[in-house]
Model the fold of this input.
Amino acid sequence: MGLSVQQGTLAQPGGTGNQSATGFGFQPGITLFWGTEYTATGAGTNALHSFSFGAAVDSGDYRAITANADYTATSDNAFSHDDTRCIKFISNAAAETAGATFVSNDTNGFTINWAAADATARLINYLSIGGTTLTRAKTGQFTKATATGQQRVTGIGFKPTAVIFFMATIGTAAPPQTADGNSGLEIGFARSSGQQNLSAILFLDNVATTANFGFATTRITTCWEEISAGGATASIGALVTMDRDGFTINWTTAAATATYIFYAAIQGPSIYVSSATANTSTGNQAITGAGFTPIAGLFTNISSAATGISASLEGNMSFGAMTIATARSAININADGDGEAADGLLDTTKVLRIYNQGTNTHSADFVSWDTDGFTINYSAATGTAYIYCYMLFGYTPTAGDAIALTESRQTFMTISDAAR
Done:
């Protein structure tokens, strides 16, 4: 089988133990996880919003980041980066509320183990990728260079086709670390020196939420940017090359602090990284340039029409994925800047949601995978052409190969007391 993908949702159980996702029809080689505090689909307000992102390759290779925003009258935030969890949630006091390890890639799905679990049935989204075209995958970490210039990261064991970078803001201690303070996260996609982008967000801790307390950035020519507490670029780096045993990043600005950066490296599939601007009216949008027919896509945005760091009364970041017309999801974390609760959403009927202070500005759903890209349809759009970033996965089959696109719209789980 050439390449197989599955996107779906799991509900966090109310206790510790194993949980399995089944019905894939293939054995995954890598799975990405993302989620918020939401236990049901839709938009709403919460006193606390968390955004968690993780990646898992096997029982000994997984990691996760988390950032939360508690924006009442005064902000109180926390962050975590953890190489002992594939998905993790924390309180604004920096205590773990729920977290899972990765147990196994199964012949028909995967199994995780909830090492910590509260009574909140959070909905966890995932994208699993497998098949013979996925030849290698690995997660890892490195410390950012503290001086400008090129930094070569080695030890991966293969030349990646693409890398996903992710970091909990100001992760200065070796993982696992959970701490109170300025919180945020970054997700960067990189395929080559000409195909890379990023979205990042920073929430300031212990400030009045009627003042500017959030910063966000998106870039379409670099894969990494760290935002300082003053809203400036602390570090910024761009992928130079994919190397035989890793990759090389060139830092044009480098902070003196050696923060930890996580990555998920993938070898084999056809991958395309680019960006686009959202439609300013409803209807279809056809995106081209991939050079192949995709079968899965990841999307990020910060509700900005310009690249670079922006400051406002609220920070905003969205993450989405799609595989087929009935398998897609989008989440958003949005810290409201009026001293009230934070806004956010979980939508399993759209792939792209741009959501700003309780107002939905753009909603787009999957239409088709095309020979050179994809088509989405906007059911809601404003006059602002917001930037969104994306990473596409695909495969050009040869005789005897097959592409499998499977769907998980139902949660399958088995709870036991078995530890990993």
About this structure: Residues 406-420 have pLDDT under 50 and may be disordered. The first strand starts at residue 3 and ends at 11.
